[in-house]
Amino acid sequence: MPADFATSAPLASRFRGAALFGALFLAILALESAPGRLWPLPGGGPDTGFALALAWMMRRPDQLPSWLLGSLFLLADLVHGVPPGPGAALALAACEFLRPRAKALSALPFWARWLTVTALALARYPAEAFVLALLLVPHPSVSTYLVSGLFTALLWPPVAGLVHLFTQRRPGRQRS
Q1: What domain range includes position 87?
Q2: Which residue blocks in the chain are alpha helix, DSSP H?
Q3: Is residue 172 part of a domain?
Q4: How far is CA 11 from the centre of its chain?
């Protein structure tokens, strides 16, 4: 990763962005774990936190340290009652796959970015099922995981639009 890209924003801006991301992720987690379901879909719904992380990583990777992503994904595993570890590690790996490519992906048309997210979402869930099967942990069927991946990919465009609104640069501010 080029040094100028990793330090493209002032430190305060990176902390503000990380704090905003963390607050949004925790709010989503609270909504998903509240009584009644946020996404009453058959076979589970989209992973809204994962969609948020992918959208934020494409827009402002300098604001998402790996330790924050890993901690939040692990917390999401614990809150959702799934075996902690494999899902969080694969979600973090998908985000870290995007980090060095974020600048190049931002120059691509929207459909290409959406296709990238769809590929990551559809690859993450069967990989998680495979890891859980290797560990002999009971898990939902692969088709359930694929439905979740598809719903996550379908949710990504509106989430990316919201992330774009939250991460707009203010006019008159210089980047150092």
Answers
A1: 3-166
A2: 3-6, 11-33, 48-59, 66-80, 86-98, 102-106, 110-134, 142-166
A3: no
A4: 22
